[in-house]
Design a protein that fits this description.
Layout: H1 4-8, E1 10-23, E2 26-39, E3 43-47, H2 54-62, E4 69-78, E5 81-82, H3 88-97, E6 99-102, H4 106-109, H5 116-125, H6 128-138, H7 160-177, H8 183-187, H9 196-209, E7 214-218, H10 226-242, E8 246-251, H11 254-260, E9 263-268, E10 271-277, H12 278-283, H13 288-295, H14 335-339, E11 345-348, E12 351-353
Parallel strand pairs: 3-8, 3-9, 6-7, 7-8
Antiparallel strand pairs: 1-2, 1-4, 4-5, 9-10, 10-12, 11-12
Helix pairs in contact: 5-7, 5-9, 6-7, 7-9
The structure holds iron/sulfur cluster.
Iron/sulfur cluster is lined by residues 287-288, 324, 326-327, 330, 332-333, 337, 342, 355-357.
Length: 363
Amino acid sequence: MSSATEKNDALLQVNNVRLDFHTYAGEVKALDGVTFLVKKGEALGLVGESGCGKSVTALTIVGLLPENASVTEGEILLAGENLLAMTHDQIRKVRANKIAMVFQDPTTFLNPVLTIGEQLEEVFLLNSERLANVAAERKIEVEAGKEEQDTSGAAPKLARSRQKKVAKALSIDVLSQVRLADPERTLKQYPHELSGGMRQRCMIAMALARNPVLFIADEITTALDVTIQAQILELLRELKRQLSGSTLLITHDLGVVAELCDRVAVMYAGNIIELADVKELFANPLHPYTQGLMRAIPMIDRRMERLETIPGSVPDLIYPPSGCRFHPRCPFAFEKCKLEKPELLHVGKGHTVACHLYGEGKA
Ligand code: SF4
């Protein structure tokens, strides 16, 4: 549940989204009324265990769901426009111009038979107006005799050779922005010639190339070794300072959220169960699941033999538990928890929680 002021500040609103996967084993009720918003200019962390619905939520936003998925209820508004009501072509334009997503494994998403330069150039060539502006600003010309007319027919702003020259200049800029040491060389390389960290930087560069209003990063440090993870986190921190758009950062790592995010939403079994400012959530976690996650983090000022764990595992979403989906694992569960799903309630400034222990739902 979001206040009127929060809705006015919102870039993205996800409202009561329900989604099922149709499988041979049965209907997987993957999202069970997911509701949250991302404000303009903020970084929101979406955290939870594997299988809780974080990545499915992101794929629903960008319209990249597999064919066996169906959204049965809800809306996703980007600056007031419902992404779920858009045609295939309309959502493709949104992905090309407004929302960029970077995934965990860059190898799967980079084209292995094109150089990084060719892949970046494709992104820039989609926006001929921007190329024309940059060419005018930087006074980019091509050598006499090399100028050729664009025959694409779609209101060309520049000849193709000039567009390509501008796209190359912008590609070098964006590869420098993600701190690749030799951008000109990287442009000529194929993905297999780069390390995992460099490939991830190229994916981030491709996302930035679109100048998105929303940047979605899905577990982008998980597949990297620890030193490269630290470098990518440092890069994200720098980009957050430089960029004006919003970020949705999906991770199971609360340490990453603490470093990079303004607010955090905690997900469990297809529901948002708590949402607050990062400082507030770390100081005052209210939901028993969030409290369990916090106790599972090693703390420098807390001496313990073993880290605590949350007993049990994420439920089978073909047969989700009734009422509160967390009740089979919750040490505080009482009768009402098995019968009624708790709604998200405001319990303090910007802090919402879905648990019968709070508000009128108390035992
Ligand atoms: Fe535990 Fe009940 Fe709260 Fe769910 S609603 S988290 S089962 S106390």
